[in-house]
Amino acid sequence: MRNLRDLFLLRPDVVFLNHGSFGACPRPVFEAYQAWQLELERQPVAFLGRRFAGLMREAREALAGYLGADADDLVYVPNATTGLNLVARSLPLEPGDEVLTTDHEYGALDRTWRFICAKRGARYVRQALPIPVTSTQQVTEAVWSGVTDRTQVLFFSHITSPTAFITPTAELVRRARAAGIITVMDGAHAPGQVPLDLNELGADFYVGNCHKWMMAPKGAAFLHARPDRQPLLEPLVVSWGWQSETPGPSRFIDELEYQGTRDIAACLTVPAAIAFMEAHDWPAVGRGCHELIRHARRAITELTGLAPVAPDTPTWYAQMAAFPLPACDGETLQRRLHDEFAVEIPIITWNGENLVRISVQGYNTRADVDALVETLALLLPEVAKLIEGSQTWQKTNPHHDI
């Protein structure tokens, strides 16, 4: 795989294995972003007052083609959290209703649903999915066992944030639709990392980021809604699109797209990000990144002796994976990785366990992965929990001198 590091703006002195948190924008895409910002500032009234609708329509059409969607069924939002808040706040939950989810969801959205359910008198039900996961049927049945006659919403991630495995989405969406349950999907990590056809998937609401694996600038994400579910949605910000005197393609677009004065350059740059991926054969880049993740999987598993989160196939992970660590001070480990060795990577605490989550993008090399593994081998014994942690480390690594 050709290394594309020279096409990114990342600091050369940092081993950057954390694309999954905020992404990284390629140099030519960032230049397109700055060009849009400059054009806006040269004539703000023409740009936002007269050209806004047409520019956003063109950006939606490019994104829709990439996602397998219709342009009038999606709107740009600043980030996935905003889009999912819009959906959660709009749904007509009543006292006693249940929102079913898993214990692998992104913390900010756990808080969102808990907040909404508390206000509405509904229950937020987190269904446990033990790791390692072994089969799509295991995951599907574990989720579905939480369904009751009060379940109104099924909320789950396409790719989980803390544990980084790909959820069996199609079967869950199919079952939910058959049961009359609204599906809300958090696709923060999916666009650009796994193929998407939103019309075929058929989720009621799907929210994804463009700034992560699609490598668009920060501030570009999307909300996709099935046409029959769009009437449920209410704008987070009421502006000129509500009861518009010059209606656009739909109430959905009118009410959700225009939210007052804002910089839309990130959204308008999404077509440039898509063109960048096409120009550099991104499916091939993704396959090379997956192989680097497999290399990391073998090395870290050998180091720790702990079973990986999911089976070793592209069905379960693409360019991001999480690996259990022995009992240790995760906060200290992450800080020392960064401060002492310039390795940027998250150590995630999930259900009381520490995981290291690796994200590999086209700018990464095998040397980056090897640097992480070598540094973990050095630091893990030093940050092991006293007594029980040290015993755990010795048990899984009997030949490691601590």
The CATH topology of the largest domain corresponds to Aspartate Aminotransferase, domain 2
CATH superfamily of the largest domain: Type I PLP-dependent aspartate aminotransferase-like (Major domain)
**Beta-strand percent range:** 5-15%
Mean pLDDT: 93
Task: Tally the structural domains.
Answer: 2
The secondary-structure class comes to alpha/beta
Q: In angstroms, what is the radius of gyration? A: 22 Å
Strand order of the largest sheet: 2-8-7-6-5-3-4
Amino- and carboxy-terminal Cα gap:
37 Å
Named at the architecture level, the CATH assignment of the largest domain is 3-Layer(aba) Sandwich
Parts with pLDDT < 50 across at least 5 consecutive residues: 386-402
Shape: globular
What's the total number of strands?
12
Q: According to CATH, what is the class of the largest domain?
A: Alpha Beta
Query: Which range best describes the helical content: under 10%, 10-25%, 25-40%, 40-55%, 55-70% or over 70%?
Result: 40-55%
Number of helices: 16
The ordered H/E elements are EHHHHEHEHEHEHEHEEHHHHEHEEEHH
Main pleated sheet = 7 strands, mixed
Structure in a nutshell:
With 402 residues, the protein is of the alpha/beta class. The chain contains 16 helices and 12 strands. It has a 7-stranded mixed sheet with strand order 2-8-7-6-5-3-4, with helices on both faces.
Characterization of this structure:
The chain has 402 residues and is an alpha/beta fold. The chain has helices at 19-22, 27-42, 44-50, 52-67, 80-90, 107-120, 136-144, 169-179, 198-201, 251-257, 265-268, 270-279, 282-304, 330-341, 366-383, 388-396; strands spanning 15-16, 74-77, 98-102, 123-127, 151-157, 182-187, 205-209, 221-225, 320-324, 343-344, 347-350, 353-359. The strands form three sheets. The protein has a seven-stranded mixed β-sheet, with helices on both faces. α13 runs parallel beside α15 and α14 (330-341) packs across α15 (366-383). The two termini are 37 Å apart.
